[in-house]
Amino acid sequence: MQSSIRVYAISGHRLFTESIAARFDMCSGIEFTGSTTDPDQAFSSIKDLMVDVLLIDANMYQGDAIKLTRDIRSGNPSLSIVIFGLDSGDEVILEFIESGANGYVSKESSFEDLVRTVGEVYEGRAPCSPRIAALVFDKIAQLSRERGFQRKARMILLTPREQEILEYIAGGLSNKQIAQQLHISLFTVKNHVHNLFEKLKVNYRREAIRYAYDNGLIEKKWLARAPANHVIASHAGQGGDGPEP
Q1: Cα–chain-centroid distance for residue 177?
Q2: Residue 66 and residue 99 in contact, taking contact as beta carbons nearer than 8 Å
């Protein structure tokens, strides 16, 4: 059973990493496994040394530390990443968090702060100051508002006829059945289906139905309007995966 947190560092400052290596050696429960200035070396060392927590110097590679964080995170989803040496610029901290960092320590932090952060991210916690926590929540709220605006924009784009056809699709009706219900040609129905798929940014009927339900474009009562075999057909066979031929 592993008894120590295995820590590795990527930094352009050898003297710094050597000094923290010596200090980590005095910490119980932490094993400093090494450091490098070469990102390629880091990728292999992380796996070979079974690293638990990776320290990345925020100021290395002339601003490429954010890209490095993103690249390492994409190949190591379970690795804990701590950014050290950060300035207090809000946008930079958020960029590192968005790139996959689990925690950070600023230039003003002490070695004890670094040790505590390593322990916290290893345990699955996300240490950050109240100010940064507020910024993260503001970012989440902003993204939510943007997605809400996009959803409303898509709803507004649908014509009354497209809305009506979407409701029939949700009820499980095929293009031919929709044409019969609305007393229009099959060709016209296909055009409407194609246009509403384009507006909703979906490719399949099931995606259109899910999007419509999730965003309040249609009500579940429409599902009850169609016979059960029609509903099954819409999901599993007849026209279930897109505009019918």
Answers
A1: 39
A2: yes
d(CA 100, CA 82): 10
Instruction: Quote the pLDDT of residue 219.
Output: 57
Q: How far is CA 118 from CA 52, 56, 76, 213, 233, in A?
A: 9, 12, 17, 43, 54
SS3 category, 227: coil
Residues 6 or more apart from 118 whose CB is under 8 A from it? 5, 7, 30, 53, 55, 80, 82
Host domain of residue 217: 158-236
Query: Tokens 């409407």 label which residue?
Result: 192
Residues 53 and 134 in one domain: yes
For tokens 């094993």, what's the residue?
A: 31
The CATH number of residue 80's host domain is 3.40.50.2300
Separation CA 167–CA 205 (nearest Å): 11
How many folded domains does the chain comprise? 2
* Predicted confidence (pLDDT) per residue in 105-148, tens digit: 888 888 898 998 899 889 887 766 555 555 555 665 555 555 55
CB 18 within 8 A of CB 64: no
For residues 134 and 167, state if they share a domain: no
User: How many Å apart are CA 243 and CA 245, to the nearest integer?
Assistant: 7
